[in-house]
């Protein structure tokens, strides 16, 4: 079983989440945040959304 160490989220990591969480593939996001598990990333996004952090969303015109 892998042991994970908890560490506080830096402002830079939070900024990466706010900018890229909804705009890039999750695998690419995991590469931008080494040492963070997918579950910890998801939980941090939920926390930040609850604190009203502004997240960039992919526009509908880019999907076409």
* Helical run tally: 4
Largest sheet: none
Structural class: mainly alpha
Can you give the helix content as a percent range? Answer: 40-55%
| Uncertain segments | none
Number of strands: 0
User: What is the global morphology?
Assistant: globular
Strand-and-helix sequence, N→C? HHHH
Q: Output the radius of gyration.
A: 13 Å
Bin the strand percentage: under 5%
Intertermini distance: 43 Å
Query: If you average the pLDDT, what whole number results?
Result: 89
Walk me through the topology:
Elements lengths: L10 H10 L5 H7 L5 H13 L9 H4 L1
A few lines on this structure:
By secondary structure, the chain is an all-alpha fold. Helices cover 53% and strands 0% of the residues.
Description:
With 64 residues, the chain is mainly alpha-helical. 53% of the residues lie in helices and 0% in strands. It has helices at residues 11-20, 26-32, 38-50, 60-63.
List key phrases describing it.
globular; 64 residues
């Amino acid at each position: 079983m892998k042991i994970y160490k908890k560490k506080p989220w830096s402002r830079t990591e939070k900024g990466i989440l706010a900018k890229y969480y909804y705009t890039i593939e999750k695998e690419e996001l995991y590469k931008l945040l080494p040492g963070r598990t997918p579950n910890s990333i998801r939980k941090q996004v939920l926390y930040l959304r609850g604190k009203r952090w502004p997240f960039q969303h992919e526009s509908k015109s880019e999907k076409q």
